[in-house]
Amino acid sequence: TAALAALEAALRLSPGNQDVVVAMGAVRMLFYLLHSDGHAEDLYAGALRVAACLCESNANSRLAVLSAGLAERSVRLVERFRFVGPVAQGHCRLVQSLLVGMKAEEKSRLEAAEAFATVYQIFDTSPPTASTLEAMATLEQLSSVDVALQTEAACDGGGLFVCAQLVEPLTQT
């Protein structure tokens, strides 16, 4: 997990590093890591965060991550870990990164992978935790990129009333 954290730091907001790492086969490595069983939750979460960093500011990386099916695998891992914890947070970050500069085809792939529905599920089933906050940030971004997604986030995502109920206990100290 330390190696993934170092890679994540090197990739954050660096399109040049993202290009190099993708060219070196990082997406393939992430594919195999996310598809292998028996790892700790933190390792899967780290891999999802690296995938998210690859997509932050690089359209080619986003396409590579989508084409490799990492969004689909992310959904399965979130289901496996019951929609809470570091994997749920990693999924939300991946979806947020994939939303940047999203095209219609990419939106269709994310919808087919149930990536958005999984964010709603994280938001809906998680007690107020870091996973919930990450899902809320993702819902906010969803609603800012596309009118159809805005409506979907308001309806399927639980609406503003539920947001307010979940945020209130987190903001009280």
From TrEMBL:
ARM repeats lie at residues 25-69. SUPFAM superfamilies: ARM repeat. InterPro entries: ARM-like, ARM-type_fold, Armadillo. This is Uncharacterized protein. It comes from Chlamydomonas euryale. The lineage of its organism: Eukaryota, Viridiplantae, Chlorophyta, core chlorophytes, Chlorophyceae.
